[in-house]
Design a protein that fits this description.
The chain is of the alpha/beta class. The longest helix has 24 residues, at 357-380.
Length: 762
């Protein structure tokens, strides 16, 4: 990458219309962004500063400072002196004044009389209007509701103006205004308190509450959490805005329509753009971030090419056969190509590894999908698909054979590689299994990690990546902060080089864009390279959205179900990607996927029983009678109520007391009533007398159990079984009660048999 281009961007940014970096401490990156904002404001165009969400916070400061400098200067030039009126309040120095007289002359010039209203001061001041708004800190008009405090409220603003535009001119009104749509928290935390004291803005909440930053009558800009708030409180009050700035703001169709209808100028900062005309674009790239952060080319990406000639040959036979069918019958079998890519992530280190199950599952899933695809495509042309089905199934099984333990070239290569800080586990594979597997090659310090957890690792580390998924995955890993050793079969490596070339071309296209040249005037001295990758290899990895979705095909495991039969003859059917608790050989509870289970495994699987069934089962096993008391108390209040409600008058009395219908009360009185306790048991306190507190306690326990049971207890029970830690619902119970709940909702059972089934789960 040509780093001279990056330096030229900074040099070009120093020729700004308002050179404020001499008075404020800005980095090179901030200076460029200041230039971009100022240039965009000078153009008759909208502007999109495209940055990733993770990088937005560093842009608040340069964007806001550029806007302040621009609008202070513009308002300085366009502001007009408004003659003061009796009753208006003003601020000068450290005192507050109220206008008490106007319309008289002093030595031939119009003047104004003011009374000091600051505490401890009662002097009268007569001021000639020609000097009322002078450049040396004249009178600043205040909000009518302002108090009499003598704090130096406006000194930070005047100092800022002096630095930004070389003047402390007191602007009585701001004819040129802007609005910022952003997070209040992110806005405020991007500046020190002293800096924010300089900003003449009014924050508006979603409910229209005004929170002015300074006690001004008029504001230069407004901050709000969304466009609707700006529209309802600013635009609809006939306040014109020169520009609306949206920082890290999600796509808003109302804003988009408003811009299209009115021509309102807008600046977008973030990765969400609006479909609007006349939009200049600038996308910051990773090499630019790295260069301006002083860490350019610090990361090392090392592709480790894994040779397996038999795999290459088996793959080519399969792909070529599919291509021949396509050409012969003029049909599209694109979906079949990327079933090859699924096998590349299967790395089996030991013969007894539970990861072997994935080969069986993939074989099953491919057989099922192959039948569906071929039957549909061949029926469309009136041809028989059986021969193609048999041949392709055999060829694909030959491919799968090459990733079994005895042939798994990646597993063998892994044994000779240098241990890294992390091993990135392929998508949908179980971390617990990999924690055991990686130790079998004497990697004792490496931590296994998912892609989601890797995103949260902020310290530069070394990572082993086991496969290449798709372009999105490539870009995330390739542009990350970590040193990578990347295991790649030959076909994966070809695609790796293709993705790399495409990524570099996209960078050059951005650097060479007409919008960049228009915004900063620096041309990039480079041309995109011609990408040359075999078409078949492209098809393996490049999924056609018209044919299928990335999520569906890359998570094929989610579409395989297994029937689990236990030795107690109970049966349950789950997706192979469902999580269960496995009791391992050390009698320790660990999380596992259904797809990794084997016969004779002892497991605990959550079954979402109906809450009442769960409660009844607990009661039945309650040898100490603790839960039986809840049932007894439930019957007690009903019995007392039934004894009392001997006529309709009393039924109506109870219904009014409890705020329910008489029909509800009559339902409580039936022997088969499922209601354990009324929602407002407190309304019956006087009626139940001294029994109320015992009944109320039972009601509280029952309600807690039902809340927990009604909310899927799976995670909490699992966490308790594995770590003995209690979640928010289980924390209200003792260990003995939790054990009873766990044993009934997640009993330990031994697997008698496992088989893939066709039925779909609800």
């Amino acid at each position: 990458m040509n780093t001279n281009y990056f330096q030229k961007l900074f040099e070009a940014s120093k020729t700004d219309y308002i050179n404020i970096e001499n008075h404020f401490d800005f980095s090179q990156f901030e200076s460029i962004n200041i230039h971009l904002i100022l240039k965009a404001l000078s153009e008759d165009a909208n502007f999109w500063l495209n940055v990733n969400k993770r990088d937005i916070d560093v842009l608040y400061r340069p964007v806001i400072f550029a806007l302040l400098a621009k609008f202070f200067k513009t308002n300085y030039a366009n502001s007009v002196m408004t003659p003061p009126k009796v009753g208006e309040k003003y601020h000068k120095g450290n005192k507050r004044y109220e206008v008490i007289e106007t319309g008289f002359l002093v030595r031939g010039s119009e003047a104004v009389k003011l009374k000091c209203i600051s505490r401890g001061h009662e002097n009268i001041v007569i001021q000639v209007l020609d000097y009322f708004y002078d450049d040396d800190g004249g009178y600043i008009k205040l909000d009518d509701e302002t108090g009499n405090s003598n704090r130096q409220t406006f000194k930070p603003m005047l100092d800022f103006m002096s630095k930004a535009i070389g003047s402390q001119y007191n602007i009585p009104v701001f004819p040129n205004k802007f609005a910022i749509v952003c997070s209040k928290q992110h806005f405020e935390t991007s500046f020190s308190l002293q800096e924010r004291k300089a900003f003449p803005y009014d924050y508006i909440t979603r409910n229209g509450e005004r929170q002015p930053n300074l006690p001004l009558e008029d504001f230069m800009f407004y901050v709000a959490p969304d466009f609707i708030t700006i529209r309802n409180n600013i635009i609809n009050n006939n306040i014109d805005l020169d520009v609306i700035i949206c920082i890290d703001y999600k796509e808003d169709l109302k804003l988009q329509k408003y811009i299209q209808k009115t021509g309102q100028k807008v600046i977008l900062v973030g990765n969400q753009k609006l479909e609007i005309k006349n939009l200049l674009k600038w996308r910051w790239t990773l090499p630019e971030y790295q260069y301006f952060d002083g860490r350019f080319d610090e990361t090392i990406i090392t592709p480790v090419v894994v040779e397996n000639d038999e795999l290459d040959q088996a793959t080519n036979r399969f792909l070529n056969y599919v291509k021949d069918i396509e050409d012969t019958y003029r049909i599209n079998l694109r979906q079949l190509y990327f079933y090859v890519s699924y096998i590349y992530s299967i790395v089996i280190i030991s013969e007894e590894s539970r990861l072997n199950n994935r080969i069986e599952d993939l074989s099953y899933f491919f057989e099922k999908k192959l039948e569906e695809i071929l039957e549909q495509r061949f029926s469309d042309i009136g041809a028989n698909h059986i021969e193609a089905y048999i041949d392709l199934l055999e060829m694909y099984r030959d491919v799968l054979e090459q990733v079994e333990f005895s042939h798994n070239a990646k597993a063998k290569k892994l044994e000779y590689l240098e241990e890294t800080d992390y091993v990135l586990v392929p998508q949908r594979q179980t971390l617990a299994i990999w924690k055991r597997e990686i130790k079998k090659i004497d990697w004792t310090n490496a931590k296994v990690i998912s892609i989601n957890k890797l995103r949260k690792v902020t310290e530069q580390s070394t990572v082993t990546v086991l496969a290449l998924e798709d372009k999105e995955f490539f870009t995330e890993i390739y542009t990350g902060i970590h040193d990578i050793q990347w295991l790649l079969y030959s076909d994966e490596y070809k695609k790796y080089k293709g993705f790399k070339a495409r990524y570099n071309n996209e960078l050059i296209e951005e650097y060479s864009s007409e919008d960049r040249i228009r915004l900063i005037g620096v041309e990039y001295p480079g041309e995109p390279t011609v990408e040359s990758i075999e078409e078949l290899i492209d098809r393996i990895f490049d999924k056609d959205p018209a044919e299928t979705t990335r999520d569906y095909e890359s998570t094929f495991h989610d579409h395989i179900n297994k029937e689990i039969v236990f030795f107690d003859n109970t049966i349950i059917t789950l997706s192979v990607n469902s999580s269960v608790i496995l009791i391992n050989q050390y009698d320790k509870a660990v999380i596992n996927k259904v797809g990794d289970l084997r016969v004779n495994d002892k497991v605990r699987i959550y079954e979402n029983q109906h809450k009442d069934i769960l409660f009844e089962s607990i009661v039945q096993s309650d040898e100490d009678g603790r839960f039986q008391k809840i049932l007894d108390d439930s019957m007690k209040w009903k019995r007392m109520l039934k004894e009392y409600c001997t006529n309709d008058i009393r039924v109506n009395e109870i219904s009014q007391k409890c705020g329910v219908t008489s029909g509800t009360v009559e339902g409580w009185l039936r022997l088969d009533s499922a209601t354990k306790f009324p929602n407002r048991l407190d309304k019956l306190k006087d009626f139940l007398g001294h029994d109320f507190f015992e009944i109320f306690r039972s009601n509280k326990i029952y309600t807690s159990i039902m809340i927990a049971a009604g909310r899927d207890l799976s995670d909490e029970i699992s966490e308790y079984i594995i770590n003995r830690s209690k979640g928010p619902f289980l924390s209200g119970f003792g260990n003995d009660i939790i054990n009873e709940i766990s044993n009934h909702n997640m009993p330990e059972r031994e697997i008698k048999s496992l088989r893939i089934v066709e039925n779909e789960l609800d």
